[in-house]
Write a structure and sequence with these properties.
Layout lengths: L1 H30 L2 H12 L6 H11 L1 H10 L9 H12 L5 H21 L16 E6 L4 E6 L6 H9 L5 H8 L23 E9 L5 E6 L5 E5 L10 E8 L9 H11 L7 E12 L6 H8 L1 H17 L5 H11 L3 E11 L16 H12 L7 E7 L5 E7 L7 H4 L18 E5 L2 E4 L14 E6 L15 H34 L9 H24 L4 H5 L5 E2 L9 H6 L7 E6 L3 H5 L5 H5 L4 E4 L4 H7 L2 E2 L2 E5 L11 H17 L1 H11 L5 E4 L8 E5 L6 H9 L5 H8 L2 E5 L4 H12 L4 H17 L7 H16 L22 H8 L11
Parallel strand pairs: 1-7, 11-13, 15-16, 15-18, 19-21
Antiparallel strand pairs: 1-2, 2-6, 3-4, 3-6, 4-5, 7-8, 9-10, 10-13, 11-12, 14-16, 17-18, 20-21
Helix pairs in contact: 15-16, 16-21
GO molecular function: ATP binding; ATP hydrolysis activity; ATP-dependent protein folding chaperone; unfolded protein binding
Family: Belongs to the heat shock protein 90 family.
GO cellular component, one term: cytoplasm
Length: 838
């Protein structure tokens, strides 16, 4: 950072000097005009406008004539820079990972091979014969001497090209080659900025480039990135390349890892796995090698064992006389003797690293399921086959190819990482294999492509490959470009279409099963089960998409699945719910809770289920958040039946009759509702008659804009919940009572007869607290509730005695005796107690 700042300051200083010199020259010229100067001074002394001369000078400085005068009289300079320091800044500021150097060198080698291949289309002789004609890249290392070698059989470079391409920073040989080729050809070379080669100095302190172009001599370019380089003819110092380039890298101290076979193999797999040309790595492996027996010892062995052979022949003859009896141990020993002897040795061989082909370049109809599965396992490191694949080619404003896979199982840390910043692959913190990988012309660029795929679809595995994506100069990241939005939009649409197809297959299977007819178009068993597997693993991800992806919320809503009162065992879709609604129903009813059993027995759903309305059971933590975002589905509105003012979609006549009946009941229960509201105070906003209850005496409902009991529970469980904010968001609650329940009717009569009855007050408090619990809320005061419950239990079993006071309790040293009065009371329990009274 300091070095970059110094360069910028140096440039600014030069520019300032130029302007200052021009101003000084102009000032000197103006100073010769003495009358004007004297006049200005005189004017100032006489009390005239002192700022006028300054304004006049400013006007002169900004005039076109003044600017031309500066340009005509100014002395021109060129920016100066220390090349060795500039190289250091370039190398260490441009790239964020040292690993990049191998990708850049392999990409350059691939470009060189592409160039010779293009030329060979019109002149086959340029390829040469034998091994020279092989278009390949070979890598090997000398770990002891800290050296790395990369060789290609590409087009090579002449002496002048060495000087221009490697001796000039930001000079791209690929760009020059493209300019020379005919326009409109299908040529996709990687290099375009001319700085990729210099990334080698991230790990090297000295580099030699041995190269030979077709029909030219072999040359050596050498440099240590110290501001100088040398070019010389190769006078037999190296083997004759025939054609191509050999890069000798002398690794720095601390970069010895790049001479390790395993490390090199990992980097090639990460960055260059799908390069068009084969990449071979020289590796040493321990293998069992057969050992030839000493031929001179054979005659002696034969003489020594001649008698033994005769004995064996006699034994075999005896065995034949006795019958075909063969000893298994003898047979096994005979087989072992036939096996040649081996010894473990270190064998050096060339290992083909990029044998996985870029199958996304082919047409989907030409690729078998076996090839798809093999490719999926290679890119995802998964042992199972993929659930399905998404393979397409996009054309238009942005052209790219994509091959994506949906796994059968969610990565083990998928839901842990979905809300965190995603660590890059192969870096500390990257726990699972990267999802979607971005390639530009088969060269890996990045797997940190949040701009290409929303986080809720980050479970996808596969590749996106484009020939026209704009990259930054280091080719490590994408430039912000409108084409990225287009690519993201198409990737999301194609993914949702693939998920919808799995859902449609499931629907077809169910329809076929219900019709009990043989349908030739029925999907296979595997296709019928795919969406169920997907929903189990990635259902939460789609719900997260509802919250985040406004543009695709409608598409995602069609993929949601829930249990319901009419489908308690199997999942149902919103479309299925709509197909089963009652005549005139325009609302989708739902209730959220901890478990399906809890919501199925909820008092809020009693009357709706009894009258034939279907209620969705939402038991996932995200479900209620999802419903807050879904305002409607196919003209059906959503309603949480655990909140107030829930209206049933009844006929107008039924609504009118219910309204008249409610008015009469309201007047009847007015004494109870007013008295109960007075008893509860600020705990509730009101007490009113309920239209949703059947067998439950009362419930507590949240206000229309407040949090439900389930949402309050979720917010309390949050590690960073704010109690003050939670209290504000909670809103007011309403106590709804069932006018048909005997408890409510009895309490009404008791209140009408005596408003101050303590039993009525205790009963009302206990009913409210019980309703709180049954409605899913927490008690305001658990101690008071438990105390009332204990009193009720005492009355129920006829216990009238209280615990002895603390002052009358015995000491620890004296044995306690039961009070006679208590014993007598317990003995003569409750002949006069009304056990049925509450």
């Amino acid at each position: 950072m300091m070095k970059r700042t110094r360069v910028v300051l140096l440039a600014a200083l030069c520019a300032a000097c130029l302007v200052a010199g021009a101003l000084a020259a102009d000032a000197a010229a103006d100073s010769t005009d003495s009358p004007k100067v004297n006049e200005a001074v005189a004017g100032k002394s006489k009390g005239t406008d002192a700022a006028a001369p300054e304004r006049e000078n400013m006007g002169k400085m900004t005039s076109p004539s003044f600017q031309r005068k500066i340009r005509e009289n100014a002395q021109k300079f060129e920016f100066q820079a220390e090349v060795n320091r500039l190289m250091d800044i370039l190398i260490h500021s441009l790239y964020s990972h040292k690993d990049i150097f191998l990708r850049e060198l392999i990409s350059n080698a691939s470009d060189a091979l592409d160039k010779i291949r293009f030329l060979s289309l019109t002149d086959k002789s340029v390829l040469g014969e034998g091994s020279t004609a092989a278009l390949e890249i070979r890598i090997w290392a000398d770990k002891e001497n800290r050296q790395l070698f990369i060789r290609d059989r590409g087009i090579g470079m002449t002496r002048d090209e060495l000087v221009k391409n490697l001796g000039t920073i930001a000079k791209s040989g690929t760009s020059a080659f493209l300019e020379q080729m005919q326009k409109g050809g299908d040529i996709n070379l990687i290099g375009q900025f001319g700085v990729g080669f210099y990334s080698v100095y991230l790990v090297a302190d000295w580099v030699e480039v041995v190269t030979k172009a077709p029909g030219d001599k072999q040359y050596i370019w050498a440099s240590g990135a110290d501001g100088a380089f040398s070019v010389s003819e190769d006078n037999g110092e190296n083997e004759d390349l025939g054609r191509g380039t050999l890069i000798k890298i002398h690794l720095k101290e601390g970069s010895e890892e790049y001479a390790d076979e395993a490390r090199l193999k990992s980097l090639v797999h990460q960055y260059s796995e799908f390069i068009n040309f084969p990449i071979y790595l020289q590796s040493t492996k321990e293998k069992e090698v057969p050992v030839e027996e000493d031929e001179e010892a054979e005659p002696a062995k034969n003489e020594t064992t001649e008698e033994a052979d005769k004995t064996e022949d006699e034994d075999k003859k005896d065995e034949e006389d006795e019958g075909d009896v063969v000893d298994e141990d003898e047979e096994e020993s005979t087989d072992e003797e036939k096996k040649p002897k081996t010894v473990k040795q270190n064998v050096t061989e060339w290992e083909h690293l990029n044998d996985n082909k870029a199958i996304w370049l082919r047409k989907p109809k030409d690729i078998s399921d076996e090839e798809y599965n093999k490719f999926y396992k290679a890119v995802s490191k998964d042992y199972d086959d993929a659930l399905t694949n998404i393979h397409f080619k996009a054309e238009g404003d942005v052209e790219f190819k994509a091959l994506m896979f949906i796994p059968k199982r969610a990565p083990w840390d998928f839901y842990d990482n979905i809300q965190r910043p995603k660590p890059k692959a192969n870096t500390p913190g990257a726990s699972s294999p990267a999802g979607l990988k971005l390639y530009v012309r088969r060269v890996f660029i990045s797997d940190d492509v949040d701009t290409l795929l929303p986080r809720y679809l980050s479970f996808l595995r596969g590749v996106v490959d484009s020939d026209s994506l704009p990259l930054n100069v280091n080719r490590e990241m994408l430039q912000v470009h409108s084409s990225l939005k287009t690519i993201k939009k198409k990737l999301v649409r194609k993914t949702l279409d693939a998920i919808k197809k799995m859902a449609d297959d499931e629907i077809k299977c169910k329809a076929s099963d219900d019709s009990d007819s043989e349908n030739s178009e029925k999907p296979s068993t595997e296709e019928c089960e795919r969406f169920g597997t997907f929903w189990k693993e990635f259902g939460k991800a789609l719900k997260l998409g509802i919250l985040e992806d406004d543009n695709n919320r409608g598409r995602l809503a069609k993929l949601l699945r829930f249990h319901s009162s009419k489908s308690p065992k199997n999942f149902t879709s919103l479309a299925d719910y709509v197909s089963r609604v009652k005549p005139g129903q325009k609302t989708i009813y739902w209730i959220a809770g901890l478990s399906q059993d809890e919501v199925a027995r909820s008092p809020f759903a009693e009357k709706l289920v009894a009258e034939g309305y279907e209620v969705l059971y939402l038991t996932d933590v995200l479900d209620e958040y999802v419903m807050q975002q879904l305002t409607e589905f196919e003209d059906f509105k959503f309603a949480n039946i655990a909140k107030e003012d829930v209206e049933l979609d009844e006929s107008e006549d039924a609504k009118k009759a219910a309204k008249e009946a409610a008015k009469a009941l309201k007047d009847t229960f007015k004494p109870l509702t007013s008295w109960w509201k007075e008893q509860l105070g600020s705990k509730v906003s009101g007490v009113k008659l309920s239209k949703r209850l059947a067998s439950t005496p009362c419930v507590v409902v949240a206000s229309k804009w407040g949090q439900s009991a389930n949402m309050e529970r979720i917010m309390r469980a949050s590690a960073f919940s704010d109690p003050a904010r939670a209290a504000m968001m909670r809103g007011q609650r309403t106590l709804e009572i069932n006018p048909d329940h005997p408890l409510i009717i009895g309490l009404k009569d008791k209140v009408i007869s005596d408003k101050d009855d303590e039993a009525a007050k205790a009963t009302a408090a206990l009913l409210y607290e019980t309703a709180l619990l049954e409605s899913g809320f927490e008690l305001d005061d658990a101690k008071d509730f438990s105390k009332r419950m204990y009193e009720l239990i005492k009355e129920k079993i006829g216990v009238t005695a209280d615990l002895p006071s603390s002052s009358s309790s015995t000491s620890d040293d004296e044995p306690a005796e039961a009070p006679a009065s208590a014993a007598a009371a317990n003995k003569d329990v409750g002949d006069d107690t009304d056990k049925s009274e509450l």
